[in-house]
């Protein structure tokens, strides 16, 4: 009955410093972090950097997709402003914030160029 309520105390290792057992204990955690960094975090940061560069380099005629799913063509941009004018239908223009643009579609080649 006595052992049911109290745990047994064990003596600690005399070394107390950094040893192979400590490395084996923290090694998998470090390995998991490195895998997450190189497979998830780093590619996402690279993609965000490319998107920011594309958003900054927008010009008239670029076809874009916003975070809300609106597809349009850039009609006017201003370097000092975060807003751009986008035509979403014939004769329908809206102002869009640059940071809401998620995709800049590549320009289409003319049909006669091969």
Description of the molecule:
- It is a single chain.
- With 114 residues, this protein is an alpha+beta fold.
- The chain contains two helices and five strands.
- It has helices spanning 2-5, 20-56, and strands at 63-66, 71-77, 83-89, 92-97, 101-105.
- Strands 4-3-2-1-5 form a five-stranded antiparallel sheet.
- A hairpin with a 4-residue loop joins strand 1 (63-66) and strand 2.
- The radius of gyration is 28 Å and the shape is elongated.
- The N and C termini lie far apart (88 Å).
- The model has no long low-confidence stretch (mean pLDDT 85).
Distance between the termini: 88 Å
Assign a percent range to the helix content. 25-40%
Q: From the helix content, strand content and strand pairing, which structural class follows?
A: alpha+beta
Order of helices and strands: HHEEEEE
Number of strands: 5
Number of helices: 2
Cα-atom radius of gyration: 28 Å
Average pLDDT number: 85
| Largest beta-sheet details | 5 strands, antiparallel
Strand content: 25-35%
């Amino acid at each position: 009955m006595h052992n049911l309520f109290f745990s047994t105390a064990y003596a600690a290792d005399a070394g107390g410093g950094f040893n192979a057992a400590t490395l084996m204990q923290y090694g998998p955690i470090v390995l998991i972090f490195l895998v997450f960094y190189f497979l998830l975090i780093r590619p996402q940061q690279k993609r965000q950097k490319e998107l920011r560069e594309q958003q900054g380099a927008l010009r008239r005629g670029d076809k874009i997709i916003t975070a809300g799913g609106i597809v349009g063509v850039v009609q006017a941009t201003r370097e000092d402003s975060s807003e751009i004018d986008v035509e979403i239908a014939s004769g329908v223009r809206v102002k869009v914030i640059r940071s809401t643009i998620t995709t800049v579609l590549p320009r289409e080649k003319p049909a006669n160029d091969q």
